[in-house]
Design goal:
heterodimer; A: alpha+beta; Uridine Diphospho-n-acetylenolpyruvylglucosamine Reductase, domain 2; Enolase-like, domain 1; five-stranded antiparallel sheet; four-stranded antiparallel sheet; 31% helix; globular; B: alpha+beta; Aldehyde Oxidoreductase, domain 4; Aldehyde Oxidoreductase, domain 3; five-stranded mixed sheet; 20 helices; binds flavin-adenine dinucleotide
């Protein structure tokens, strides 16, 4: 690590102010940022810790949607969303290990937008709204490619509002080393249609599989996906699998998610 | 004879591991827990290119940075010896192997990613690291050689300019048999051929390496604290070959060590550096490897590419075996690297079978990668994997049952002299195979397969046998084979006045539980409580010259030395007892911690005898010395040959290619067993590593010599959820015939014996799904399986 200052504001307003300093960066659970700092791959001058901000904490129903504070840990979501949104709670339960789940937060995960992260798939498939200190962003506009989001410099994810689908399931096929998704599919069934989000596969990060959505909205049955394929050409190819393999897994994971619901 | 009862203490008892109290409560004392007064920290600046000419290392700006005490580069070590290699191989033409210089810090060239170029010693690690970033390194990059078959081509870039090529040696074994082997292939009724890769692994002990050098200016003494499996070996190699420090001025301490798996046998540059720098800086110098550094500086394991062929006659008897292996040495020769693909591999190619003719060819190759050396099993897993995959393939080609084909060719008479130089003293391979079939419930497999199929999964059953040569080794023999060391072991048994004992052993425990099992042996011999025996290890100042722990040798060789020393103690104690009891020495019996006169009720307790030895008022001083302390060195007359049969049952998801191990059964013959619980634990750990190699672990370089699997994000370690509950049995026991305990060694068996069973099971599962692909390389990852199923 390089040297940095740390600030611990207790309100979002103070955090935003602190983030106005040069080379300042928010620090939430640190499960992504701290390893990056230890490897000396980032050099922030000020870290603004979000963990002491009460208004970023919580899992509760607000206007028929499930609101989760941006600073809420995976472990808290796993417990507190278990009844209101079980598919999301189960997703949180399979992120990393207990240490990661007890520190890592939903805001950090969405801000980072790792192409293999879990929460982006849930947010996109649920049609969630990302709340920040200055605006609200629909998930469809928020994810803008690998490690890229609509967030501006110094903008903080304060919360996420998840409309609750009639049924949903997250099917994750793990990369054997990191245990992040190699490919995972989140299928959410709403009264007005089905949304399918895929993570882990594309060089563009999380994406909606619109052909699958159309087919499943027509008929919610795994067989409805027969004949649908994705092109492996722009998918991630690495030690753990080629683009073609990932494209194939997109189909398998989506099918299994549908089967788990149906 | 299978043992069907277990005593409550002494030999054969599952005594709880006494060392676990400190390991499990966080009170172990590992090298990194040691912090010396006025200690400084070193950071190594490591090469980020695989191959290049070092045209300049400018440390001037870095030297002025805060906290910096001294910066070292290759030039500082130019006059000092390089890292030594402990084994010289003679090639098939009778010529010695090519042995490159191995500098402490890179000089003139860098040869692998991770090679240290400069070392910054500073007040704090952060300051050292900051300064290292200010060092300006000029490297003229050269094309890297990574692929072994490319590396041996005439026009390949040379890793070492002063060698004639990248070929370290071309070894033929047994060269005199070559023609006869070829002829047997010409005459064969069937020949099975297999090409395979034994994947490169990173050992990944939980504790990364650490070294702390200390120099006492007033006495001129050096101390090195290090994470080593063999402190005396480090003292000898570093003192005599690198730094020129005589043994009496150098102490090496290896305290609690958190796993070694072979990779902590070797003498590393960081150890030599910290010892050297402690004097140059005038303060202790500490280095703790980060996990990232461990990936690119700990010696790697395996990495063989092999073509193997088996000749059979019309009755399916094995008539000859021929192998052609490329073995990766990496950029330099690590301490015992040359011995691994040769003497630890070629001599095991007979396996459990009476194949009369064998020829093994091994080409050891330099590449721009981290050095490769022994890793749990070292050479023997490579031999077992080739042979047991090949036999399975032969069985399927010939449409015979793979277990039957193995049984038909088993060695059944002992001692058995193999055509590859070793002589198996004892064994019963049918017994372990019988046991395996019973506990693996082979008969019930078809029903389980149907259950899996009902869930849309394929199920496969795979077996293999294994044999290993452990208890290394007869010193005169290994000397003839090129070892530059003896391989005996030592023990000093010190009896205290009130009867307690301290055993100072040259073996080293880094997870094996010696503090418990060694104490069981000595306590059993005397008939006293185990808690009266303390085991001391890991410090050259406290233990006699010993060769350390690797190759499943500790109980077989170190334990034997301890038995010999204890026998001397008992012999002397009987003399004292005979004096105290006024009886003739020949009539004295030792039982349950008391000496008695045969046929009488006269007796004297162990503690009375030991007290007499140190308070010799009533004592035969004219015949024997006071005191009770004895040392023994034990040099084995042969290797030991643990053997067994393993079975793996997998489920394969044909849609994703994901393989899960549903059952794993191990039937081992380790000879006599001192602590069954510890033996079971050793097998469990070995199986985790073997299954890890088969399904998950893979160390991968790209063609430029960049390490792709450089962290746990990409290097897949086996975890508890990847493994089934094992069925482990070691009730088949043919005791070793040539060591006093009749023990064979159990530390590596699991890692040696499990990869072929896993791969055989995967191929069986695929066949049941209509896909007969003949072979698949490890690790059998989901992507590989899926590609094979759909290729
Ligand atoms: C061993 C391990 C396994 C893991 N496995 C998984 C897995 O299976 N699936 C998965 O999805 N993830 C996984 N993760 C990642 C984990 O979920 C992280 O916790 C998460 O990605 C980042 O959250 P954090 O709170 O730790 O953020 P931090 O590390 O603190 O920050 C990450 C980034 O987001 C920024 N940031 C943080 N909070 C906010 C905010 N509220 N607003 C704006 N910017 C913010 C930071 O500045 C930084 O750039 C794993 C991590 C580890 C270490």
């Amino acid at each position: 690590m390089y040297e940095f200052e740390i600030e611990r504001p207790s309100s979002v307003a103070d955090a935003v102010k602190a983030l106005g300093q040069e080379d300042a960066q928010p620090l939430s659970g640190g499960q992504t940022l701290i390893p990056t700092l230890k490897a000396r791959l980032a050099m922030p001058s000020v870290l603004v810790s979000l963990t002491g901000i009460k208004e970023l904490q919580g899992v509760e129903m607000r206007d028929g949607a499930l609101w989760i504070g941006g600073g809420t840990t995976h472990a808290t979501v796993m417990h507190d969303a278990a009844e209101s949104y079980p598919a999301l709670a189960k997703l949180a339960a399979r992120i990393g290990d207990p240490a990661v789940r007890n520190r890592g937060t939903i805001g950090g995960s969405l801000a980072n937008n790792d192409p293999s992260a879990c929460y982006p798939a849930a947010a996109l498939a649920s049609g969630a709204t990302i709340e920040t200190d200055r605006r609200e962003i629909a998930a469809d506009d928020y994810f803008q490619g690998m490690f890229t989001t609509a967030l501006e410099e110094g903008e903080i994810v304060t919360g996420v509002r998840f409309p609750i689908p009639q049924a949903a399931h997250y099917e994750k096929f793990i990369q054997p080393a990191s245990r992040f998704p190699l490919v995972a599919a989140y299928v959410a069934q709403f009264s007005d249609g089905v949304r399918v989000a895929i993570t882990g596969a594309s060089n563009e990060g999380v994406f909606r599989w619109t052909e699958a959505e159309a087919a499943l909205s027509e008929r919610f049955d795994a067989d409805a996906l027969d004949g649908l394929t994705l092109d492996g050409g722009n998918m991630i190819g690495d030690l753990h699998g080629s683009g073609a393999y990932r494209a194939h897994l997109c189909g398998v994971m989506t099918r299994r998610a549908v089967q788990a619901i149906a | 004879m299978p043992k069907d009862f277990e005593p409550s203490s002494g030999i054969g008892a599952s005594s709880k591991r006494r060392e676990d109290i400190r390991f499990l409560t966080g009170s172990g004392r590992y090298t990194d827990d040691i912090n010396l007064r006025r200690q400084t920290h070193v950071f190594f600046l490591r090469s980020d290119v695989a191959h290049g000419r070092l045209s300049g290392v400018d440390t001037s700006a870095a030297a002025d940075m805060p906290g910096v005490l001294k910066i070292f580069t290759g030039a500082d070590f130019a006059e000092i010896g390089g890292m030594p290699c402990g084994w010289q191989i003679t090639d098939k033409h009778g010529q010695p192997m090519q042995e490159p210089k191995h500098p402490v810090l890179a000089h003139e060239k860098v040869r692998h990613v991770g090679e240290p170029i400069a070392a910054v010693v500073a007040e704090t690690l952060a300051q050292a690291r900051d300064a290292a970033e200010a060092i300006v390194v000029d490297i003229d990059e050269l094309p890297a050689v990574v692929n072994m078959k490319e590396a041996v081509k005439d026009d390949a870039p040379k890793v070492h300019d002063d060698l004639t090529s990248n070929l370290c040696y071309d070894w033929g074994f047994v060269e005199e048999n070559k023609e006869a082997v070829n002829k047997a292939f010409d005459d064969a009724a069937h020949v099975t051929t297999l090409e395979l890769v034994n994947n490169r692994l990173v050992a990944n002990p939980m504790e990364p390496r650490v070294a702390i050098g200390e120099y006492d200016r007033s006495a001129g003494d050096y101390t090195l604290y290090t994470t080593s499996q063999n402190p005396h070996v480090i003292r000898l190699l570093m003192g005599a070959f690198v730094l020129g420090i005589p043994e009496h001025k150098l102490r090496v301490v290896a305290p609690d060590v958190g796993g070694g798996f072979g990779t902590k046998i070797f003498h590393y540059q960081e150890e030599a550096f910290c010892t050297f720098a402690a004097k140059a800086v005038g303060r202790p110098v500490k280095w703790t490897s980060s996990r990232s550094e461990a990936f690119m500086s700990d010696a790697h394991g395996r990495d063989h590419v092999t073509k193997i062929e088996l000749a059979l006659d019309a009755k399916n008897n094995f008539t000859a075996l021929r192998t052609d292996t490329y073995a990766n040495m990496g950029a330099y020769l690590s301490t015992f690297a040359p011995s691994v693909p040769t003497w630890l591999h070629g001599t095991l190619m007979a396996g459990n079978y009476k194949t009369p003719l064998i020829y093994v060819n091994v080409k050891a190759v330099f590449t721009n990668t981290v050095p490769v050396d022994a890793y749990r099993g070292a050479g023997r897993p490579e031999a077992t994997y080739q042979l047991e995959r090949l036999i399975d393939k032969a069985a399927h080609e010939l449409k015979v049952d793979p277990i039957k084909l193995r049984r038909q060719n088993f060695v059944t008479e002992f001692p058995y002299a193999t055509p590859v130089a070793v002589e198996y003293d004892t064994g019963d391979y049918n017994a372990t195979m019988d046991k395996l079939e019973e506990i693996a419930d082979h008969a019930g497999f078809e029903a389980r397969r149907r259950e899996s199929e009902a869930k849309g999964k394929l199920r496969g059953f795979g077996v293999n046998c294994y044999i290993e040569a452990c208890g290394i080794a007869p010193s005169n023999l290994v000397g003839q084979l090129g070892a530059r060391a003896g391989l005996y072991e030592s023990a000093t048994v010190r009896v205290n006045a009130t009867g307690g004992l301290v055993v100072m052993t040259g073996s080293h425990s880094h997870g094996q539980g010696h503090e418990t099992s060694f104490a069981q042996v000595v306590a059993d011999m005397i008939g006293i409580d185990e808690n009266m025996v303390e085991i001391v290890h890991g410090d050259t100042a406290r233990t006699p010259m010993g060769m350390g722990t690797y190759g499943s040798r500790s109980l077989a060789v170190g334990g034997s030395a301890m038995v010999r020393a204890t026998e001397k103690i008992i012999a002397k104690a009987k003399k004292i007892a005979s004096h105290l009891l006024e009886a003739s020495e020949g009539d004295i019996e030792l039982k349950d911690g008391a000496f008695s006169v045969a046929g009488t009720d006269k007796s004297v307790a162990w503690g009375d005898v030991t007290l007499a030895a140190y308070v010799p008022h009533n004592y035969p001083l004219e015949e024997i010395e006071p005191g009770l302390e004895e040392t023994a060195f034990y040099d084995p007359s042969n290797f030991t040959y643990p053997a067994g049969a393993y079975a793996c049952e997998v489920e394969l998801d044909p849609e994703t290619g994901h393989v899960t191990v549903e059952r794993f059964t191990a039937a081992d013959d380790f000879g006599n067993v001192v602590n069954p619980m510890i033996v079971t634990g050793q097998v469990h750990g070995g199986l985790a590593q073997g299954i890890g190699q088969a399904l998950l672990e893979n160390c991968v370089y790209d063609e430029d010599g960049q390490l792709l699997s450089a962290s746990y994000m990409d290097y897949a370690m086996p975890r508890a959820s990847d493994l089934p509950f094992y069925d482990v049995d070691h009730s088949c026991q043919t005791p070793c015939t040539h060591n006093p305990l009749g023990v064979k060694g159990c530390g590596e068996a699991g890692a040696i014996g499990s990869p072929p069973a896993v791969v055989n099971a995967v191929l069986d599962a695929m066949r049941s799904g209509g896909k007969d692909i003949g072979h698949i390389d490890m690790p059998v990852s989901p992507a590989r399986v899926w590609e094979a199923m759909h290729g």
